[in-house]
Amino acid sequence: MAILDRYLHPQMSAQRIIPLVLWPITIMMIFHRSVILGVNGDRTDDFKPVYQAALQFLNRQPVYGENLNTVDPHYLYPPSGTLLMAPMAIIDPERARWLFIAISVLALIASAYLLAKLFGHSARSWVVPVVLFFFFSTETVAHTLIFTNFNSFVLLGMLAFMLLMMRRRDLWAGVPIALTIAVKPVLLPLLLLPLLNRQWRVLITAIGIPVILTVVAWPLVVDPKEFISRTLPYLNEARDYYNSSIAGNGAYFGVADWLIILLRVAFLAMAVFALWFLYRYYRRTDELLWLTTSSGVLLVTTFLVGALGQGYYSMLLFPLLMTVFLAGSTMRNWPAWLGVYGCMSFDSFYSVRWEAFGRQLEFNKVTWGWSLLMIAVFCSLLFRYLDMRRDGVTSLDDAADVGEPSPAEQSGDGGEGRGAVATVEK
């Protein structure tokens, strides 16, 4: 019977089953999001103004003279970004857009590989198809391809920066993040991390490359001063459309100014505490968890507190989400994942029966998603801090004097909830 069972019930491990299930589904999702939805496009086209600006740059025409009072997508890249984007205007706009979508998909696949690599998994691991499946099931990736935005390259640059920084390839680590900053400075807050980690050489290339590109591009752009006088002030305005930041969302719904300021200050205070706690207790004991969680805190805070936060920026939070597989992760609680649903779900809440209610949900989901995610991370770290204070642990040295947690504590929520942290892991 045992011999017969070997033929009728062949055994297979979960590590083999997961790729068998997810690879065909993921490949079809990639095809659908890029070839079908991406090529179809939507009412919002982020690629058109970029292509037009690149074309005007190559033809020695003004780049920053468009009307910024409309709600259409505008060209907002600095002169350094204009220089880097210029080659795509060599071919016609339709094929240039298709090529941009194709390269974006390759960048996302490379990002999945780097994210798995960052967390210690190989390219053949079951983790890669899981990560890709999650990537392409989110709104942030889908709309990056549909709107044809630069975000996938920002994600790739961020992950390359983190991986090289972890490997102490400091000068090289600054290169990928520098190229993204030269086009779209959304990752600029992350330069605080090599500064805190005393990896000063990262800043040489991270700051030097955008400066050099700006110096080269400045005389080549016909109207570079217009970027300073018109585009920069516009970037600092909290517009009331396509803006999920606290200020933008508040402006759309007519929230009182004092409440907007209070909320921004509150989330900024949460970020300061979280960054301090992570730096003090995790930087030397678990550098990967420190780096990925701190980056998530910095970026979520920027999205919420800054002037402009758009939903598809959420893909830059993938490293934070991946920490759920690490002991000590702040993502091991359900409120954090409810927040992830809010800022990454492809679900639409427009309702025919309850139109006003549906619009409220749809226009608020990204803002409350980011907010809930930030609150969950903050509370997780705050509860650990309070538990440590209760047990007299105020530094890493004090942790050695505290006994091991009881079996009941060890079998609890893994140190993510109130009362679960008695020591600092070394």
Automatic annotation (TrEMBL):
Coiled coil: none annotated. The keyword Membrane applies. InterPro entries: GT87. The chain crosses the membrane at residues 20-39, 98-116, 122-138, 145-165, 171-193, 200-221, 258-279, 288-306, 366-386. It holds the Pfam family GT87. It comes from the Bacteria. Keywords: Cell membrane, Membrane, Transferase, Transmembrane, Transmembrane helix. It is a multi-pass membrane protein. It is found in: Cell membrane. Its main location: membrane. Residues 397-426 are annotated as: Disordered. Belongs to the glycosyltransferase 87 family. This is DUF2029 domain-containing protein. It comes from Gordonia hankookensis.
